[in-house]
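Below is how a single chain appears once it has passed through the pipeline. First comes the sequence as given, then the structure the pipeline wrote out for it. We keep one example in the README because the format questions we get most often are answered faster by looking than by reading.
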Amino acid sequence: MEIDRGAFFASMGGAAAVGAMSHEAKADALEHYMLMQLNAANAKKFPKAADIEAEIETRPYRRGAGNLFIATKGNVKRLEPMPPKPTLADFFKLRFMATSNHVLQSANRAVETGQSEEVILACLLHDTVQELIKVDHGWWGAQLYEPYVPEKTSFAIRYHQALRFYADTRNGYEYPELYYNMFGEDYQPEPYIEAAYKMVVNHKWYLESRMVTVNDLYAFEPGVNPQLEQFTDFIGRHFKQPKEGLGYDNSPVAHMWRSIARPDAPL
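Resulting structure:
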């Protein structure tokens, strides 16, 4: 069976997440992916939403938990300590290990396709909150970054989550086949997602959110490794780094940054 490496990496959370797995975990994941692909090849027999729900009690973790808090195989690894006044770059290096390659690819593609700097920054940041939590990550991510980025950027981060469930072929976005396996072929977005979509599709910043989904979908290329330094100027112009360090500036979201920095704290 021919394997689509990009789709496989995407199903596992990106190339960086796969790279962090043990050889045994990679083998198990690949076998599972191949079985899913074989099922899909048989007249596109995708699971139903009820089948996906039935899998909940087959795993020792919940799919909505952040990457830092789970190990799909074996035990979690010890993390390097954060510096006293951590910057965004420190979080990319020391805590965004599972999501960094994907978002860097996304931002790199946004540059190549001529997106605005606000959209490029949104692409760079849009999935990093998944280190903390995956469920409703658009809303969580926007909240995490709102005190530090332009309003247009946080808007794009917030609503890319809702837009990803709705095709827009005119702007280059098709519903991902991967979602039929992830959510079930008969999955219907919840009412709050539908309401968000209907609001955003008529909003003046619709394209900002849409371009995040476009650059999100195609940013799982193996062997492509953009570096954060490529975006130093964008970050300098548009990210308000607190002098006290992220997590220690007494902002309304400081606790979220501390939770990412200190995921092993018992309370």
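The chain has one domain: 1-267.

See the next section for the split statistics.
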